[in-house]
Amino acid sequence: MMEEESERRRRHTLVVRKPCFGLPTGCPQCLSAFIFLKLSKLPFTLDFHLNYPDSEQIPYFEAGDSVVYNNEKDGIIESLKKEEGVGDLDDGVSSLPEWIPTKVMLTTWLADALEYELWVGDDGSSAYSIYYSDLPWPIGKVLFWKKAHWVKHKHGITKDNAEVKEEEIYGRANSAYDALSMWLGDENYLFQNRSSSMDAIFLSHALVVLHALPESSMLRIKFSEHTNLVRYAQRHKTELIEAGTSPSYDPSFNSDASSSASRARSTSSSKAKSKQKSKREETKEEKTLRKRAKYFVAAQLIAVFLFVSIMSGYAGGDVEIDDDDAGYDLDD
Amino acid sequence: MTHPLNHNAAQNDDVVHPEPEDDEQEDEDAEEENDDDDDVLPNLRAPPSPASKLQQQRFKVETLARRLSSEMVPIRVHDIVVNGNTKTKDWVIEAELKGIETATTMQDLMRACEAAIARLQALEIFDSCKVRLEPGPKELPNTANVVVDVVEANNTVSGECGVYTKPSTSSWTLECALKYKNLFGYGDIWDTSLAYGGSQATELSLGVYAPLIKRLLTPIVARIMLVSQDWQEFSSYKEQLLGASLGLISTKHHDLVYTLGWRTLTDPSQTSSRSIRRQLGHGLLSSLKYIFKMDRRNSPIRPTRGYAFLSTTHLGGLSPDHRSLRFLRQEFDVRLAVPFGFYNTALNLGISAGAVFPWGQGFMNKTSPLPERFYLGGDFSPVCTLGGPTTLWGFKTRGLGPTEPRRQSRNRDDDNNGDSPGWDFIGGDLAVTAFADLSFDLPIKWLREHGIHGHVFAGSGNAAKLTQHEYKHFSPRKFLESFRTSVGCGIVIPTRLFRLEGNYFHILRKDEHDRGKTGFRFSFSAPS
């Protein structure tokens, strides 16, 4: 069994950008793929591709001679769901009415906010460490400037409207944090108390914001105001990442020693999980709070829908918003 | 050895006239020294007629010629005067006049003048160059003044087009260049060139050639270039290099070039094999390449006698940044041509070997850079291609060596190319090639007169990966046993510029994924 698992691990390799800031990889997209595979409990090896920061192919997943690239089809997570041994983690939750609005929020508002913060808002040191620190200085600098210019162009940021745009981006991110905080409450996962790809995407965002961005970062400050979100991120970091070997700059780095994440109610003996247990007893008040949170999320989604259709400020929005969402079910 | 003055007279009838006419050929007007000539010339008081003037001049020249052929005529150069250069700096021209100042005899002086004219013409910045000898001051006997008359090129812009061979990439390139001469008056030649070649190689470059910078021994050659090469078909990657090169030393036997560049490897098709995939990305190339070449063969196109030796050392990673591409690549190439003395038969033997490995911290776990590895194969004749282990008769470009399976996609049909092998040639860290070629004249006289001859040949070669602990699995015996071998025969048509071969190859041994085929093929090779 161990040999079989070891063989499967060797056969499956996730290639990501470099580990840094105490995370197995500092890149949000790579980290979401990593967390997704961890939640799927697939044994795999982690490998690093350090000199290609502007590649759209990274992260990629190698299974023998076949490869799943991030820039194919709907991204690496959607492709991994069809991969043998991985399975569809979203089976049963992706049809929920809240699914698509949450996905839109995570993949547009929060993704754009983090992208802005890394390359424009911050002094750029975090992005440089994650993407360019393994390239010789002149090449790293040129690629960084190229990417920063691209991000500004994507968001329509000019010298005249820089402040306005910044407020807009941070405002949307804050709204998203508020909505998600209300939605999550004290739950372990975003949907039906089981892991899903949305958890992988949100966790990667949260961990990069908390650990890679400097303390003075506006995005980090706003995120830190939501204590349940911080708790959610730290809890999963402990379970998924720190429970195994610590992340190291090692081509054969393998951090899947612990696979304690589960879809069912947790029976782990860790302190975090015992705390979760005690908080699982929903009171009437918490149920009311959840209902109100759903109304709040609905309001945010309508605002998103209006913004996308009227303002048309995004260049790369792949997610389609279904008209059916306007009348989604608000029942528990 | 012909007499210098007779040699000049044979070349140019105007050399004996006191006022030489404009002539593109080597033109030298020598006048007699003042005091010696007075003894033999008649003292004419009345203005001479043209006919008698001509007779006098002829008499003077004949006398001088007799003296030059019978004795060493002592002379000393008093002054060198340069006329006609409005843009070109004086010291640029004076630097080409070496040997003239130190000449002690008339014969030496004339030889030095011939050489100076040749060097000045080689600068390509003058329309004409003439050197005149005039008598020195009367108070200084046996002296002469050397007057250099140059006419700077009116048309400073010129164009060139040519086809060149690049054995390192096993391809030909068509190159068109626009040259601007003598922009700053240093004899500098600026050129912009665009080259297009096999494997969709394109190069856009801007270069300068400065023959003389003060105190430096050799010309400076600098280029800024953007090169792109498509190896998609063979190795599933494309290469782009944006950089600059500086030729530090360039002599007959030694070449030293420094290159600084930003190299990017990409795979738009996303079909590359694992080791190619892991090398995609950016790298900084800062390297020094030293070439020592000695070619004592009688002909680079059809060598029948002599030997040649080439050593190339390429050291990368010459920058304080440890993240630049660090490697050491060494190649050797030895050739020997042995004549047999009948039917112009000659046996050409050659052996080439090369190795590349990374250096720096953790080099045991690193891999060698993909473009620096050895790729064997290509339609070039190894007889005239002197440049390390590159070609082997019968195998296509990058047609033999270590391979890896390309990406297998479950969803795609993967039918882009009907005969696509689905394997990437990833190159070797160690390569060895050897060949033997017996050439002989053909019995038909017409063919012999045009240099067309026959040859039979045998070639062998192999490449192996050594880095990333692969050297633990390497054994010389296995390496020798896996040598690919081919034999063949054919007709060779040598021309002044290249060597055309029509050969029949028979592959004696090849590996499963090698791209070599028994059959008939033409190949064009240029000497390198």
What is the fold's blueprint, element by element?
The complex is a heterodimer of chains A (332) and B (528).
Chain A (H helix, E strand, L loop, with lengths): L1 H10 E5 L11 H12 L5 E4 L11 E4 L2 E4 L6 H6 L17 H23 L3 H8 L4 H18 L7 H23 L12 H15 L6 H7 L2 H16 L28 H9 L4 H28 L21
Parallel strand pairs in A: 1-2
Antiparallel strand pairs in A: 1-3, 3-4
Helix pairs in contact in A: 2-8, 4-6, 4-7, 4-8, 5-6, 7-9, 7-12, 8-10
Chain B lengths: L3 H8 L16 E2 L4 H5 L11 H21 L5 E8 L6 H5 L11 H17 L3 E10 L7 E10 L4 E10 L4 E11 L7 E9 L3 E10 L9 E11 L1 H4 L2 E13 L3 E13 L7 H6 L1 E15 L10 E11 L10 E13 L6 E13 L44 E3 L17 E3 L4 E12 L3 H5 L3 E12 L11 H6 L2 E11 L4 E11 L9 E7 L3
Parallel strand pairs in B: 1-3, 2-4
Antiparallel strand pairs in B: 3-4, 5-6, 6-7, 7-8, 8-9, 9-10, 10-11, 11-12, 12-13, 13-14, 14-15, 15-18, 16-17, 18-19, 19-20, 20-21, 21-22
